Amino acid sequence: MTGSRPAVDGRWTTRLALARSDLLEFVRDRRALVITLLMPMVMYPLLALSSTLGIRTAISELERQERSDQLTLVLSGPDAEGLAGCLGIVAAREEARPAGWPEPLLIKIAAADEALALLDAAAADAWIDVPVGTLAALAGNGTTTLVPRFSTSRPPDRRVRELVLDAMKGVADEVGRERLRRAGLPTSIVEPLRIEFAGDTPTGQAGEIRGLVPSAVAAVLVLLAVLTATGAFYPAIDALAGEKERGTVETLLMSPCAAFDVVVGKFLAVFVVTLATLLANAVSIVLTATVLLRLLPAGAVAAAPAGAAASCITITVAAYIGLAAVAAALCLAVTAASRSAKEAQNTLTPVVMLIAALAGSALLPNAAISRWVAAVPFAGQVAVARSVLAMFLEQPADGSGDAGGAGAGIVVRLAASLIGSAAAAWILLAVTASLVANEEILFRGPAAASRALARPRPRLRPSIGQAIAAAVMGVAALWYVQGLAPSDFATALMAQQAVAVLLPLLAISWWQRVDAGETFGFRWPAANAAGIPAAVMGAAAVGSGLFVLGAAATLAVRGSVVSAEAAGLARQLVDLILGGPTWAAVSLLSVMPAVCEELLFRGWMLAGLAGRMPTARRAAWAVGGQAAAFAAFHLLPERMPQTFALGVVAGVLTLATRSLLPAIVMHAAHNATPVLLVAAATPEEIDVILHAGRGLPAWIVGGGLGCLVLGGLLVTAACRGRQESEAWKPSVEDDSRTC
Amino acid sequence: MIDVRNLVKEYRGGDGASIRAVDGVSFTVAPGEMVGLLGGNGAGKTTTMRVIATLLAPTAGTVMVAGRDVRDDPIGVRRQLGYVSAATGVPDRLTPGEVLDSHGRIHGLGPHARRARVADLAEALDLTGYLDRPCGRLSSGQRQRVSLGRALVHDPPVLVLDEPTSALDILGARDLFDLLERLRRQGRTILVSTHRLHEIERRCDRFLIIDAGRIVADGTRDDLVRGDARGLEEAFFAAVAPARPA
Q1: What is the band of B246 on the pLDDT scale with cuts at 50, 70, 90?
Q2: What CATH number does residue B38 fall under?
Q3: Residue B208 forms part of a structural domain
Q4: I need a surface site. Which of A355, A622, B160, B217 has the fewest CB within 10 A?
Q5: pTM check: above 0.80
Q6: What interhelical angle do A403-436 and A259-295 show, nearest 10?
Q7: What is the number of structural domains in chain B?
Q8: 8 Å CB contact between B7 and B26
Q9: Does B159 touch chain A (CB under 8 A)?
């Protein structure tokens, strides 16, 4: 026997054969099959039934409220009987009653304490203690104030308030008309417009339910995204981690093809199962929706032209095919490094949360109309489906409206979504192939899975992963601290720096056991004593100049157009600066953030990203990366360009001087400049700063530029001596030595 | 057929340090020869075989299989080589027939060629009695036969077997070595490693003894035993002992 040539050759033959083998195995796994494909067929009807029950209950409550036109009013006080007479007159004249007049209106006259008892015993809906002189005021041209009271032992009822208001409006209108008659004026003088709606009066419940439909549909779309993605879980776990567990991975990698072809074969199998899950979900949703429409009241959902529903379903499914592809590729990538099915399941748990978060982000306002959002995996597909469903729900039954224009927009977003999905899936497959071909991952021991989380040996600097981890921890802490921080702005600022910057930094520094001096650049920025003040002054000048130029650029680009959040922040900052001593504001807004944030971003993060002796290219990436994280850390989009520039300059200063001190001084000067300007300005000037949005005068911009140049020269001169001795110079190779 | 020259393979240890698992190994296996690779645990047998099977990339040195370099043409090597290891499993939910058919497809065999090949292998490996039974319900010996059949589907001239009998009982191991002898007689080149020296003592044409990543002995049984009546096992101990500290 010899090695004969195969009858058929080609990469796709191998890929399809691998996919077929996996699919065959998956089909034989009845439990996974039932969970993946049959669960949706049961789940959506159950969800629909429970939600229909909820809607029915809501409708009953609405109907009860709408039926309840009866009002029992108890009046007390010396003019109670007179007001009761006025109400009786209006009640007797049908043409005098305003819309919403209580029917029947029951009036009781009682003393104040008795009225209160009636109210608490639910024998009356409202009580008015009619003040002395009310009748006189009504008879003349005066105004009297009535204060209706409701039971404090029961929850407030909006309907009762409306009925009291309508009853009193009837009296007020009647008195008003009488006054006009006395003055010899026509009643039209106070009724310049009269609105009379044509057609049928819409039923309240249908309108209420129609308002719920878009939200319910959006929730179902997110659920569909998550459930479609879960269809990839079992086959993805089985595809690579399962092969390792069964001991068949070596045979798999002996296939006569590249690792990428093996991954594509696996992907095809997972993708087919994910698609089947999508279709099972889609069929179940459509059938459930059909049943649900029969259970809901007439008019609850807008009637759309025939064919629109089919188009809507087709476009939604088409968008979700892309989602299925990304989910399949993502699950494969995540499970590729796992050694067993259990390990793979553990690693997939955060993936569910990621997918749910991304899909849910498509529910944010305006997300559905952006073409860029459409290209984002998981969010884009939900956004496209939302926009097409919105068009479907809002389209008139007669087919009128600009369906063509909206349709073209949806086709563009669908194309963007599919292209984005294909690109994301391809990148993930390439990552998976590199993981599959990685010997250490392929043949590592069971303990290696958690090696990345183990406490490492003492080392000079953090690794790239640890650098990014600190920034992620910081942003996450910043997010949470927003909800927990006290309402006082100054205290909130301190809490933010402590929880979002210092705490993660201390935790990760302690765990990773890095060399603090090396990581945080605790050394003088210049080689000689004369150079240190020059470096510090130069950094301060650079910081002030950078602020001025950044402010000028922002004003030139955006003018006075800022978001409500930015305007609110500016107001709080000004109040803080003017509300206390200037040194306190400088400490709080300038020194504290400069120290804390520089330790995190130019200390920990830059040290990890750049390494000890980085190449020029790696240094550039490191500076850009930490500056981007620094900008993102400031959350407000308006501030990000300036904070990014600040991060870049601080990063360059740190790398050039091998010291964190210039960056801290530069950052502090950058933040202190506006504090000092506001502290020195008059209230009128501050108002101009906040609202006028005029550009800065040329002399100020020139001064800022001068500061920047002069400061840069000073720093360069100061660190020249160090550069010649021990400072960083771009190296050919990175040095990642440990202690 | 297999030509290994100055093979070095290093791994990265848990602390980042480099570990040299194979340290300058050189040997050849001629066409139609059956060679036993002997060594203790951690001696470098599996690493050497994985490099030959293209599962690991060599750190240094060259490895040629049927005239193809594992580094330059790994796919070409895989077409010429069948590989079975101690840890090799089979999919529980597929039948042996489906396993062999799937691997025929992966190697690009057409429908007629696959059917014929599966029938031939079922006959040769004595799989006909359970060809349609899920592999999850087969014994260890039967599963190992399926595994071997899978490695032979594409009719490779070279077989590399890493401790193929470790999960088998004594009868299963004997049957498997009988089968390997038959394959060798059909002209295949076989490199096999095992701890059961007595089982292969009379079956292999030649033996390589590896210890601490180096080949410490290379020769026929008679060369290694040199008239010692205690056989290959004592020759193995003698070859390994000088390399170990007392």
Answers
A1: very low
A2: 3.40.50.300
A3: yes
A4: B217
A5: no
A6: 140
A7: 1
A8: yes
A9: no
